[in-house]
Design brief:
single chain; mainly beta; 5-stranded antiparallel β-sheet; 4 helices; 13 strands
Amino acid sequence: MSEERLLLGQIVAAHGIKGLVKVRCFTEAPADIVAYGPLRDAAGAVVELSLRGPTKGGVLAAVPGVNDRNGAEALRGTKLFVARGVLPPLPSGGEEYYHADLVGLAVELVDGTAFGEVKAVHDFGAGDVLELTPKGSGHGARESIMIPFSRQTVPEIDLANGRVVITAPEDGGDDIDGGDDGDDDDGGDDDDNGGK
């Protein structure tokens, strides 16, 4: 079996006409994407990056041999991995995790009920979000749900036993139709305004 790899970033777009690429970084400091040795694509080929500057959510980089926008566009979607062994150990205390350690963990509700498993960890700009795949039926036809990755919604992470504990997710949408829909107020205002 080959050594485990962790995803550190992904080429998401071309930048300009001279072959630069935008790289979304999953490291704490975006520039650290090149700090852990050679990056490799999904096939295992080395992908060299020469950092050119910061951009929202990542870095701008040059790739040797890529000199125009078409070449940069061809790299869009390339995932960038490193061997897990080159990354520093996480601090003890269990407050930091590599995303790869969370994906695939069993998900349980606080009362011990099996819920499903962690499908992915995302960061859309407002903090990490866990994508969960509910188990079996009883959770509607959803293929996955997303919950904030916070202490409030995920009170326990037990890597040793391969599980995370979550508070019961809200169904969503029920509150939209519940409560006052404003018909009484609108009707009353229209009648009052029409009589003046």
